[in-house]
Amino acid sequence: MGKRWRWGVILDAGSSGTRVYVYKWKDPAKQQKDVDDDELQSLPKLKTKDEWTKKIRPGISSFGAHPEDVGDEHLKQLLDHALSIVPEDKIVDTPFFLMATAGMRLLPQGQQHDILDQVCTYVRQNTQFSLPDCSHQIRVIPGETEGLYGWIATNYLLGGFDKPESHNHGKGHHTYGFLDMGGASAQIAFAPNSTEAEKHANDLKLLRLRKVSGQADEHQVFTASWLGFGVNQARGRYVDALEDKYEGGETEIPDPCMPRGLRTTPQGDLVESASVDGGITLAGTGKFGKCLLDTYPLLGKDAPCEDEPCLLNGQHVPAIDFDVNHFIGVSEYWHTTHGVFGGSGNKAYDFNTYQHHVIDFCSQNWEDIEEAVATHKKASKNKKEIKNAQEACFKASWLTNVLHDGIGIPRVGIEHTGPPGLNASQGVLEDAQDTGFLDPFQPVDEIDHIEVSWTLGPMVLYASGQVPPTGSSLAVGFGSNVKDKIPPDFQHAGSNYTLGTPEDDGWSDAADDIIETATSSGGPSFLFFILTMLILAFLLRHRERRRRIFGWIGMFSRRRRKPGSPRTAFRSGTLAIANKIFGRSSAGYERVMEEGDFAQFELGDVESDDSDHSGSSEGSRLGQTSGLATPTLNMDGRFDDPRKGLSGFDRSGLAVRTESRERLVPPHMLSAGRRSRATSPTRMKSSLAPTYEHD
Q1: Whose CA is closest to 461, among 48, 43, 12?
Q2: DSSP code of 428?
Q3: Cα 488 to the chain's mean position, in Å?
Q4: Torsion of CA 525, 526, 532, 536, to 10 degrees
Q5: Are the C-beta atoms of residues 161 and 155 closer than 8 Å to each other?
Q6: Contact, 137 vs 100, CB < 8 A?
């Protein structure tokens, strides 16, 4: 890979499993040099691929009682996967993050700490990923932070940041709301309209990004999280309520949220026999209307609301203006509206259509559903598909209640959803980057072939933080809604900007693009041809290099021809062609070669690009390492300890040190030109790893 790419690895440690994501992006400092105006006004562009992602089960929260096993039994295969993707020479500069969500939030603080401590130790001992600050890079993130990261990822992929004029929703609003639901928690994040933003300013987070131009891009965002409102936790609360309702010795309890004939334990295990000895059996009745009524109380709409307005469970949320707030739903919002109910593609959500599909499915006999699954699915997938079908009706009722009675999403086809004459059900996701879509709610899985995951959010922040700022631009990150300064709770992006290296990497940039295209679409012979052309392009990429190669050819020709022997026509013709290629005039060349002995001539001492591309690890690395791994440069040219100046965070995400992570470049270096490697400062290799402080 060329030197222009930066890489990042992040693990989403969820309640049901852990998934590793690998991202890459152009070095922002180099990207500034040769881009058009549109790209300058955009955020750094991140890339990923499906095969760069891997998920394993169960989640790391299952190691609460034996945290010492989390490394070999859980992390190893995820780390091995990431190491197989990131180029070897980039690993040391690749930041590593593990961010745990609701599953870990449910564990006692002591168990959380022990697991995270083991993760930090294992990653440091078994990889060379950049991990100087475990308290920031390996932690349990609050639900509000998870929601904000998802909001960043959604708007980044839809283009709401880069081209706001193409996403004009009215009233000066151009961003999309974000809804996420996992197994244990649910999140909401959106930018209120200007009236609500002013009214509830103290409830908002100020998010600061940085575009490739170096200009700051600020947004005021509200985010909230409901622990226990994920589908699995909600199901557990629902079953508890059923058991309380029918307490009195019953061994079989009717469950309207399961298809007719389906029988399970309260834990969800299938029951084949007529009864379970000493236990309770849930018997499905397939009455979806009653299921909706029975799951409604789980919303907690009757909980006290101390700060109006409120949504679920007494949680304050600014009023949502659905004329301009259009929401994207991911995770369970996608799986539950598609999956077993036959949805495919990024189709607009239509309440009536969805309800018909759900009622038709849930009223079937369980035996018919099992037979249909066995017919259409491979045996290896039967177990998973059966489990999905078993849980689908409860999930559909929970999602319906959360969406429409909890959050207040209008029911398309029944309630007002926009200006008169607007057919909101025809919104098409693929057009969002050009015109925006006006559906009040849209479930999605991918945008522009990239999975919509909150993990993209922290990586966008990290890459954005590497962009050299314009003027006195403040740090990238988020915190309390305070203008023009860094609040005490500010969470930095985890990166800093660095000076671009002086070498000319234009050929390398093109090489990366061609190789990536060739490997994805061409055969071996085509790839060989491309690689050959790239080698030639490298050899001939500078005028001085062309002249030097020409000198080698001349030297070879001189040694082969005896002194005084005539030059053959073939040799003369070949050299004439070479003259055209290498940019030398034939007259000048003939004079040198014919009028003097070759030993009297040698190439002058010219500045060569070879030194700029040296592979030595001890050479100048300024501007090539990640922000977390790059030492700061003092005014006198000496490097500081890279561990100093990093702000620490506790496990809940609260700042315990507030100095900026962004280290400013000394003024005398802002106009620095090309340096020779001999005079470049070297990167110090500290044998002391940054300490990991226990909570």
Answers
A1: 43
A2: -
A3: 26
A4: 160
A5: yes
A6: no
- pLDDT at residue 493 in the model: 92
Largest interatomic CA distance in the chain = 116
Give the pLDDT confidence of 473-502 residue by residue, as tens digits: 789 999 999 988 899 999 999 887 754 444
Annotated binding site for ATP: 183-187
- The whole-angstrom separation of Cα 512 and Cα 537 is 13
Q: What's the rounded Cα separation, in Å, for the pair 412 and 418?
A: 10
Query: 626: buried, middle or exposed (CB in 10 Å: 19+, 13-18, 0-12)?
Result: buried
Residues placed in the known binding site: 183-187
Angle at 59 between CA 53 and CA 64, to 5 degrees: 145
Strands (E), 211-285: 216-227, 252-255, 263-264, 281-284
Running DSSP on this structure, what letter comes out for residue 637?
A: S
Catalytic residue among 39, 146, 370, 385: 146
pLDDT at 485: 86
Pair 16, 387: CB distance under 8 Å:
no
What stretch of H or E contains 7? Answer: strand 5-13
Nearest Cα to Cα of residue 492 among 289, 306, 368, 646: 646
Distance CA 52, CA 97 (A): 15
Euclidean distance between CA atoms 311 and 190, whole angstroms:
14
Residues of the chain with pLDDT under 70: 1-3, 273-278, 342-347, 377-381, 412-438, 498-531, 533-695
Q: Measured between alpha carbons, how far is 28 from 501 in angstroms, rounded to an integer?
A: 11
What backbone phi and psi angles, to 5 degrees, belong to 509?
-60, -50
pLDDT digits (tens, 9 = 90+) for 641-653: 333 333 333 433 3
**Do 429 and 327 touch, CB atoms closer than 8 A?**
no
Which distant-in-sequence residues (6+ apart) come within 8 Å of 451 by Cβ?
48, 50, 53, 445
For residue range 620-668, list pLDDT tens digits in order. Answer: 333 333 333 333 333 333 333 333 333 333 433 333 333 333 333 344 4
What is the pLDDT at residue 656? 35
Assess contact for 394 and 257: CB atoms under 8 A: yes
Ranges of H-type helices in 401-523:
456-465, 506-521
| Selection from 537, 365, 456, 384 nearest residue 153 by Cα | 456
The whole-model pTM stands at: 0.72
Question: Using N-to-C axis directions, what is the helix angle for 456-465 and 143-158, rounded to 10°?
Answer: 70
Contact indicator for 456, 450 with CB cutoff of 8 Å: yes
Res 640: pLDDT: 38
Query: Quick one: which of 532, 451, 633, 462 has its CA closest to 51?
Result: 451
| Of 223, 191, 155, nearest in space to 436 by CA | 155
SS3 449: coil
Q: How far apart are CA 15 and CA 104, in angstroms?
A: 7
Helix, strand and coil percent figures for the chain, each rounded to 5: 40, 15, 45
Q: What is the CATH superfamily name and number for domain 1-141+491-501+623-695?
A: ATPase, nucleotide binding domain (3.30.420.40)
* CB contact set of 688 (below 8 Å; sequence gap of 6+): none
Interval 250-277: pLDDT, tens: 789 999 999 999 999 999 999 976 555 6
* Residue of 490, 492, 499 lying closest to 465 (CA atoms): 492
User: Do residues 113 and 625 lie in contact, with contact meaning Cβ atoms separated by under 8 Å?
Assistant: no
Helix (H) or strand (E) holding 547: helix 543-560
Question: Where are the alpha helices (H) located in 90-230, listed in sequence order?
Answer: 102-105, 109-126, 134-137, 143-158, 194-199
Which residues neighbour 687 within 8 Å (Cβ) at sequence distance 6 or greater? none
d(CA 609, CA 545): 8
Is residue 446 annotated as part of the catalytic site, yes or no?
Answer: no
